Amino acid sequence: MPRYLIEREIPGAANLTMDDLAEIARTSNEAVASLGVPYTWVTSYVAGDKIYCLHEAEDVETIREHARRGGFPCNVVAEVTNEFGPRTADLMPVR
Amino acid sequence: MTTGILPPPARRGGVRSPGSPLARPAGTAADLRPRALGEIAAPNYAQRVELVERDRPLAVLRAAVAGAAAGEGAGVAVAGEPGVGKSTLISAACRTDAAVRVWRACCDPLSTPRPLGPFRDLAVQAGYAGSLGREDLLLSQICEEIYHAVRAEPTVLVIEDLHWVDTASVDVLRFLARRVTSMPLALLVSYRDHEVGPGHSARAFLGDFARLDALTTLRLDALSPAGVGEILRSTGLDPARVHTLTGGNPFFVTEVAKDPDRPLPASVRDAVLARAAEVTPEDFEVLQLVAAAPDRLDDRALPALGVDLPTLRRLDATGLLNRDRDGLVYRHELARQAVESTIPPGGAPRLHARLVAALEQIHRPDPAVLTHHSVGARDSVRAARYAREAAQEAIIARSHTEAAAFFRTALDNMQDAPPGERGRLLLQLGFEQYMTSRLTEAIATVSATFPLWSEARDQGGLAAAHVSVALFEYYNARRRQAEEHADRATAIAGESGPDLTLGLARATRGYFAYMRQDFDLAAACNDDAGRIAVANGNDPLEIRSRLVRAAADLAGGDDGARSRVAAFIEEARTHNLDELASTGYSNLANLDVEQRRLREAQSVLDQSLPFAAERDIPICRHWQTGVRSRLHFARGHWSAALEDAWFVLDGDGMPLANVWPLLVTALIPLRRGDGGQIDDRPAESLDRAWELVGLIDEPLRRLAVLAALAERMWMTGVPDTRVTELAPVELIALADVSGIGWAAGDLGVWLHRLGLLPDRLPAVAEPFRLALDGRADRAATWWHRAGEPFAEAMALSDSPAPADRVRAVDLLDGVGAVGTADRVRAALRRDGITQVPPRPRVSTRSNPAGLTNRQLDVAKLVARGFTNAEIAARLFISTKTADHHVSAVLAKLGVANRRAVVVQAGELGLG
Q: Considering its fold, how many domains does chain B have in total?
């Protein structure tokens, strides 16, 4: 299933407490469960005034439907087309 | 591949709960089209309706949008029946390349709308969500916030369905409409005209559209047969038949055109339901759920309702629903009603109960919405709880009509509550009714609590209720009942010792005594109240009793008390006692006019009227506008006086405030000689005023009406027994009463002119004394200095010297009192004086009498040397509008240029 990176603008996100985050997670889980289509919330990062989420769904429409149901902002949705890191360098043949 | 459920990439929308950490992002706006769900099913719907027979209205709307982009503000109201295409037309006008942002919101079709509903929905994208949550926010501050948000860049602000609007939103809209030319705004509103009857919240705002230059109203008609034919062009349907069937309703015609192969539906309902013919019973129930939520079915409620994404995809095929306002809504209200009509009897409560249960799961659900569904679910416990919460929110939003409605709903749903609890709620309801100027209802509501307090054995509550009714009855001009309630409150509260309620009861009684010139009783009552206040450490009551005491001293003739009254008003303001401060202003302005400190009165009103409007104290605003009407009348600003008088009389809010407006509407036509004869309306006004002062029974007001009746008798020569018999007796009876020197003097000089002056009189004020002593010239000089031209002229007319009387005619003609001047002209001729100035050809020679309030504001600023740009900035109008006003002012004043206004400011009464 495609993976999507979602940017949510939430002023003061960095100040959300663990209780707040638990509440958000509960709302999100309920939204996921209600969709009636395959959907996986992989993980999320809180950074400044934004939250970045990694979700798996069949299409962007479903990503947005989840956000609506949770009452979450959903400012940018981008499909993750590839993933790499420091070890990726090892995959290249040495010249 | 997307279905209609997918929103456009840059989704912009409002949010329901300002303050939620997860509030949706502030968008930059733009696309007005309904979101998805439905667009795919009916891609051409908007264009097809818009393009038919709507060229002119579309051009008007587009001009407003283009104007906003160019920095020129304007407003357009689109009126018409449901389905006539109001929203479609506005949407079409908003599809523009112009550099404007578009903010769109709708009013709620809930049984009681959410206070500030449309402006709440816009809060996040417009950036004032933080302020809306604050409890101490004044409506004027909310207006300012919205004003600043809107004027920051070119904006199209669309507010739809005004027939469902709440009162606080009306105030915001009026605030914006009055300033529309000073900002880059296209204010576009829609409403069903036949649903906005007399007394509707939106009436005042729509009245502005009729009056203000920059605002236009468009009325959309049904389509002609040719127009119907155009929509049916590619269908093979018979336009004449479809036109007859649909009455040319564009929505209906379009529904028919979508399914040309089916048999023609008999009604809009059938046409709509045909679209849902294929869906399963389970899916149809979801359609019914959305129909039961007329404002929107909140997206966040979908999980709890068990509506999944595949269901939404299937429903999308019906083309009935849109994704909008953060929820599911019907593409059109007519479609919603069609589906709602399929809910079987007894089925609605179950749907509403499901909605309540689902909405209770989300973050900060709106209590107004929960009230609606709890009532629908016949769940009294929840209905009462949410209605009380909604009422509190309405009070914070200054939406008093809605607050009253919510209290009423709460009461209807708590029949079994303890009596004390019902009593307290009824008191709150009564207060909100009073705040919306529904005095008779407020009196009935609070009176209904009397048995409840006895049942609850709460004497304090009973006494407090009597104090409230006493005040309401007084504003309602029923002094006798008011005094009885105040005495009753005193007796009940007195039994339980000198607590605060007794203090309030005494203060109330003291106020009535002061208004009736009974200064000894007033002082005793206020001193009692003051002592109780001090003993209880209650600042508001202490300041109130001292303020009223000072006002009573001033009324009794102690001029030195004026500075004390002013000081207590300031003290009330520093203690944030807005209502008390406003009442203080009301009294001070009234006494200043009564005692002819006209310039001081003007400066009090300049301060106090905006204050009463800002702090939302309608009773004071009414009263003070009535006082200003009398002030304008005294200064010869007759158009402005009539404008204020009609505002008060049409507002129909507080009979107590009507006396002077009635006199003003009676005397100005009489003095102007309108129509060459006296028509019925002024006569009726005088009779109404007479009836009113009979109920109020206060010397100052009775004397004022008697003076007006005497003036009419002098003008018409028609004897009136109230003047010939009652008035002289009344003056004799009042001979020892203090504080009536002005009113008695005014009546005295008219009786003198009629040869009816009794030999014993109360002490009258200086200018009247001079006139009665035969010192006409000195009396005239006094009035000239005071700034009361009509009285000056009348004083001169009393002179035996022909030159003075001729000068009186000139002066009277000058202020537009041609009717009165004619009367003096006739007397001059009768006395054989030939050099009488002829009647002016144009009935009103140029003079300040013709200036409206707005023009007076402009004229005063011109007199102070302001440029048009400065005037525009001060009055929140465009420079162009200011130019226009200044030209009108110069023309009405009959002067060549603004320098002349500066030079003659004093003479023109603009100082």
A: 4
Q: Which domain holds residue B206?
A: 54-222
Please say which residue of B767, B795, B830 terminates a domain. B830
Whether the Cβ atoms of residue A3 and residue A80 lie closer than 8 Å to each other: yes
Query: Which residue among B2, B21, B310 places its CB closest to the CB of A36?
Result: B310
In-domain check, residue A48: yes
In the sheet that holds A39-47, the strands lie side by side as A39-47, A50-57, A3-9, A76-80
Whether the Cβ atoms of residue B716 and residue B754 lie closer than 8 Å to each other: no
Place of tokens 């003036």: B711
Asked if A10 has any chain B CB less than 8 Å from its own CB, the reply is: yes
**Claim to verify: residue B83 and residue B210 sit in the same structural domain:** yes
Question: Of the candidates B622, B589, B580, which has an alpha carbon nearest to the alpha carbon of residue B435?
Answer: B622
The per-residue pLDDT for B96 is: 85
Residue A75 lies in a domain: yes
In a domain, B291, yes or no: yes
- Show the tokens assigned to B792: 């000056």
| Best of B16, B40, B309, B316 to mutate (most A CBs within 10 Å, chain A) | B309
Tokens encoding B360: 């209770």
Residue B365 carries which DSSP code? -
| CA nearest to A36, candidates B314, B319, B278 | B314
Assess A64–B contact: CB distance below 8 Å, yes or no: yes
Residue A57: phi and psi, rounded to 5, are: -155, 170
Coil/strand/helix, residue B613: helix
Average pLDDT over residues A5-14: 95
B443 with B427: CB under 8 angstroms? no
* B760-806 pLDDT, tens digit each: 899 999 999 999 999 999 999 999 999 999 999 999 999 999 999 99
* Apex B743 CA angle, B738 and B744, nearest 5: 70
Count of structural domains within chain A: 1
- Alpha-carbon B859 to chain mean position: 25
The answer for residues whose C-beta is within 8 angstroms of residue B537's C-beta and 6 or more apart is: none
Answer whether residue A95 is part of any domain: no
CA pair distance B182, B176, nearest whole angstrom? 10
Q: Are residues B146 and B231 in the same domain?
A: no
B222, B243, B270 - which closes a domain: B222
A35 contacts in chain B (CB < 8 Å): 308-309
Residues B217 and B149 in one domain: yes
Q: What are phi and psi of B103, to 5 degrees?
A: -115, 130
Alpha helices in B652-698 (DSSP H): 659-672, 680-696
Q: Is the dihedral of CA B871, B876, B878, B880 positive or negative?
A: negative
Residue A94 inside a domain? The answer is: no
Strands B155-160 and B101-106: parallel
What phi and psi values does residue B298 have, to the nearest 5 degrees?
-55, 130
B784 in a structural domain: yes
pLDDT in tens, B633-677: 999 999 999 999 999 998 877 899 999 999 999 999 999 987 544
Q: Is there a domain that residue B49 lies in?
A: no
Chain B nearest-CA residue for A71: B300
User: Are both B65 and B214 inside the same structural domain?
Assistant: yes
